[in-house]
Amino acid sequence: MSPVGNTKSDNNLEKNSKEQDFIINNLLTHPLENIEEVDDFYEAINRQHLTHAITKDRPYTYWTIELYDKRNGIRGGGGLGVLAADTRRVAEQSNVPFVLITPFYPSEQHQHYERDGDGFKNYTTHQPVDYHKYGYQFLDTVNIRCNNQLVSLDVVEKVLGTTRIICITEPGFGELYSGDSGGDHRLYQEVALGFGGYQALKLAGLKPAIMQLNEVATFFAALARLDELAENGMDFYEAVVYTRKHTLYTNHTLVQAAEADFSYAQFERYVFPNLRSKAVKKWLSDKFENGHIRLSSVTIEIAELRSGVSKLHARVANYRDLAGNKVKFKAITNGIDIPTWTSPDTVKYLLDKGILDKFYLPTTDYLEKIETITSEDITTLKSKGRLLLNQTLAHRPNQYGEFIEIPENAILFNFKRRFVDYKRPWLPFTQPEKLKAILEKHNAYYILSGRVHEGDARMSARLHAILDLVDKDAVLRKRVHYLPDYDEELGRALSIGANISINNPIVGLEACGTSWMKDIVNLGILVSTHDGGVADMPADNYLNISGNTEDEEVESLYERMEEAASAWEHSFDLEFIIKKELSAYLPVISGTRMLRDYLDYLF
Ligand SMILES: *Cc1c(COP(=O)(O)O)cnc(C)c1O
């Protein structure tokens, strides 16, 4: 089964022009009268700011080193890639001319866990991936210069409605995030995406109306544009101004200092040979400090438009430009493509109730409509969701290689996200007796899923410690399961079929997070610290984990877990919590809202 099967996200939605008008009106906060066609719309808003309208030949271009869209053949690593995939899906539904440029990695990683004597062993396998199997068309090849060699890159594309995915690839391209982040191979991949992707765009007959850079690994795309403008006769400073005006840098990271840097010698081998303009070369050379460069510093220079991915993140991201001034980011909170991540029954329910409109935006009276939700509806939809989850669990083994089934009437907690330090997956296991008591009292289960980054020995040890703890305790062994190789399929299935989700990042370290959005829209109870996009709204809209120390947070976490489990046994409480979550967060969650926010910011 495909990971996000039977959703309509990739269907070529046939829309008549009436519907298009409707979309346009939805995407627009300030009304424009007498606009009939998409092109007119973009032209009209274009008169206000940008030099060129967004059209079929001048699309919105979105650059990303990571795309998480296995249906289209590309496996990502986490939220950055999921966001890219959802942004494209929403653009497709809204009929926005949109091109996503990304590498097609010829190989992907999978993680496995197995019983090994007294403990567990884990290993990684590498699988080849062939773009032909995913409906991509080969366009042609383009060349870049790296390390005294001419590297030939295949350009392939897949058209999806008004959007397309353009990929550059070659057999030696490697895997996503392979090698060190400041290493030669990573620089090669980034240069290939930027310079190769920019040529690929021209090969497809397209010019970018806007370039959105999904993090700094895509800097070279904007650099390629600057180089082209300067080389084609535009005055260098005009070329800089023009490029800046049409480039949006979306930041997902908090601390600039944590970013790896590249050396001048590396740039001499991989970057400078791809530049034709002497003025651009000189400009870039001047940006080095002590022989090193951080891509964020030059991305800030080349992009006048800058966004962060939640209100809190935009406020606290600590970046300085080369002059030492603090950089301001516009807050555009991430959203998700609701039909991709929500059970079809629940999507239909939210549409039928008039809570969401057909573009998956909350309706104007969604708050009143939410009041008509009943606890019976919630429990019925969750039971159906549990069946879908169990279908997935039937082919996704736990840490023992067993296929489990969660009973229909049991309460299910879940924690599903990358295993990185700041997300603290171990927190609910701090006091195993308390966890056991909650699980036993409520006939509850706990599913843990998330990949450890290859080479992260610390987190690998922490995961093994949890698995050992569970293994040595009969109650935990029955009720707690780890699902290896976390991916979109598990993310979706768990959001749909679990009752309670746990999200406990160290406050201040989550840029946005989107897993919690999938949980809320699937009518689950969120137990969370006040961080990332969750902090867009006040903390009384979900079950908040609070505390000044980690010990206090752990106490609070168990209290909230108890409260959440008990709410699933008391219809009044359940209804109250779910309505509150939906009322506060549906506008945040809507990916269409996010795209509209980006368009508003750009135009
Ligand atoms: C939704 C999703 C994410 C996003 O995770 P966050 O931790 O919430 O940012 C990552 N990986 C997969 C597979 C997902 O489905």
Q: Could you walk me through the main structural features you see in this protein, from its secondary elements to its overall organization?
A:
The protein has three domains: 1-50, no CATH class; 54-332, 3-Layer(aba) Sandwich (Rossmann fold); 374-589, 3-Layer(aba) Sandwich (Rossmann fold). It starts with 16 loop residues before the first helix and ends with a helix. The longest helix has 20 residues, at 184-203. The strands form four sheets. Strands 5-6-7-2-1-8-9-12-13 form a nine-stranded mixed beta sheet, with helices on both faces. A six-stranded parallel beta sheet has the order 16-15-14-17-18-19, with helices on both faces. The protein has a two-stranded antiparallel ribbon with strand order 3-4. The protein is built from 22 helices and 19 strands. The protein has 603 residues and is an alpha/beta fold. The radius of gyration is 24 Å and the shape is globular. 40% of the residues lie in helices and 18% in strands. It binds pyridoxal-5'-phosphate (PLP).
Helix-strand blueprint:
Blueprint: H1 17-27, H2 38-46, E1 60-64, H3 79-93, E2 98-103, E3 107-116, E4 119-128, E5 137-146, E6 149-160, E7 163-169, H4 184-203, E8 210-214, H5 219-231, H6 236-245, E9 247-251, E10 262-263, H7 264-270, H8 278-285, E11 292-293, H9 295-302, E12 305-308, H10 311-316, E13 330-331, H11 338-341, H12 344-352, H13 366-370, H14 375-393, E14 411-416, H15 432-441, E15 444-449, H16 457-471, H17 474-479, E16 480-483, H18 488-497, E17 500-503, H19 515-521, E18 525-528, E19 543-544, H20 550-567, H21 571-589, H22 591-602
Parallel strand pairs: 1-2, 1-8, 2-7, 8-9, 9-12, 12-13, 14-15, 14-17, 15-16, 17-18, 18-19
Antiparallel strand pairs: 3-4, 5-6, 6-7, 10-11
Helix pairs in contact: 3-22, 4-5, 5-6, 14-18, 18-19, 19-21
Bound molecules: pyridoxal-5'-phosphate (PLP).
